[in-house]
Design a protein that fits this description.
single chain, about 110 residues, alpha+beta, 5-stranded antiparallel beta sheet, 3-stranded antiparallel beta sheet, 3 helices, about 25% helix
Length: about 110
């Protein structure tokens, strides 16, 4: 499963912080309901576990089909999209994907992207 790589995200922002205005993370293929701002006004947003291997964004740590990305707004107004994931090697079968989608649909939950 592709998970948000906390170390990569934090290191990337720290290395480029003089150029960055804001950073949001989300799943490229489902941006509308998976994205949240993680860095703004020169500060990392509270509520994210920056010292762990993976961060959780909008209740999601990763996906087996969508791509975790950073949408970076630079101080000059330009934007960049950078993939920010680490594959943890976890796999999931097509049957498990369908079961999780059915459970999420039946319960109205968004617990799984797989």
């Amino acid at each position: 499963m592709k998970k948000y790589n906390a170390k990569f995200i934090k290191d990337y922002i720290e290395k480029n912080r003089d150029k960055i205005d804001t950073v949001s993370c989300g799943m490229r293929e489902d941006w509308g309901w998976t994205a949240d701002t993680v860095y703004e006004n020169g500060e990392f947003k509270k509520g994210f576990r920056w010292n762990s291997s993976f961060i959780e964004v909008m209740g999601i740590i990763g996906s087996c089909w969508a791509t975790p990305v950073m949408n970076i707004t630079l101080k000059n107004g330009k934007t960049e999209v950078v993939e920010c994931w680490l594959d943890d090697g976890e796999t999931i079968s097509e049957r498990e994907i369908l079961e999780k989608k059915m459970i999420a649909k039946a319960t109205g939950g968004m617990d799984y992207l797989c």
